[in-house]
Amino acid sequence: MSAAELDTSSSPRAHKKRKTLEMAENKDPKEMAGAAAPQTNPTSSPATLDKGHEAYHSCLSSNKEWAAEYTKANPDFFGKSAQGQTPQVLWIGCSDSRVPESTILGQAPGALFVHRNIANVISPTDTSILSVVEFAVGAIKVKDIVVCGHTKCGGVNATLGNSKLGILDVWLQPMRILREKHHEELEKLEDPEEKRTALSRLNVQAGVDTLRRIPVVIEAMKERDLQVHGLIYNLHTGLLDDVETKEDESRKETRASTFTLQ
Ligand SMILES: [Zn+2]
C-alpha cells in the first residue's frame, strides 16, 4: 500500500479506507476541511496551470523561499549540513500530518533523527524501525529516544473500531492486542476521546518497552546512559505530555539479562 493510497488516491478502495479511518476518528467535517485546505500561493504560476495540485506546487515555491531566507539568516548552515549529521535525539512518531516533529519542537534541520509510521507502532519484527534504531543508536549515538503518540490518532481510532482495513489490520495488531489486554480499564472510560488517549498512552508505553529490549539499546543504556522517553502530543493545545515509562532496577536487570545478546 502506497502513501498515495492512504492520503491522496481517488481509487474507490483507497477512498473507502480513508473514509473508514475518518469515520473511526469521528472528525468534525469543518475541521477536516480546514485541516486539508492547501496553503496555496496565489502568485505561483505553475499552481494555476496545474489545477488540483496547487498544494504540491505551493510546497515547491515555499521551499525556494525557505532556502533563500534560511541562507540569509545562517550563511554557513547548508555548507555545514552537507558535511554530516550529529542529531542527539531519535524521534519515533506517527505519520499524521498534524504532528511534524521539527516544527512542534522548534528544531532546525539536523537536530532530530526520525522514524514515523501509522500510529507510531513499534514492532520487534519491523526491519525498517530496527534499522533506524540500529543506525541512530549504534552509529550516530543519539543520547535520547522519544516515542511520541498523539491525541485523536486515526490509527488508534481504527484499533478501537471493528472495521476490516486490510493490511492496516496487520500493522495495527500490536495495538489491538493492547486493546484486548486492557479491555476492562478501557471500557470503563465513557468519554471516547479519553479512551482513545488512554490507548495512545498504552501504545507509547509498549513501544518504549519494545525499544528497551533491542540489544543495541540495552547496551547504550548501560554504557552511556541512553534514555528512552514516552510522550503524547495534544492536538488541541500543541503541547507535549509525559507518559510514565519508569521502571524499577530489578525489572531493568531482569530485562537486560534476558535480552542482552553477545
Ligand atoms: Zn496518529
TrEMBL record:
Biased amino acid composition, Basic and acidic residues: 20-31
Entry GO CC: cytoplasm
Required cofactor names: Zn(2+)
Domain of life: Eukaryota
Comp. bias regions, Polar residues: 38-47
UniProt protein name: Carbonic anhydrase
GO biological-process terms attached to the record: carbon utilization; cellular response to carbon dioxide; cellular response to oxidative stress
Family, per entry: Belongs to the beta-class carbonic anhydrase family.
Classification via PROSITE patterns: PROK_CO2_ANHYDRASE_2 (PS00705)
Region (Disordered): 1-51
Enzyme Commission number(s): 4.2.1.1
Annotated function: Reversible hydration of carbon dioxide.
Cofactor note: Binds 1 zinc ion per subunit.
PANTHER family to which the protein is assigned, alphabetical: CARBONIC ANHYDRASE (PTHR11002:SF76)
Binding of Zn(2+), residues: C94, D96, H150, C153
One of the record's GO molecular function terms: zinc ion binding
Alphabetized UniProt keyword annotations: Lyase, Metal-binding, Zinc
Source organism per UniProt: Cryoendolithus antarcticus
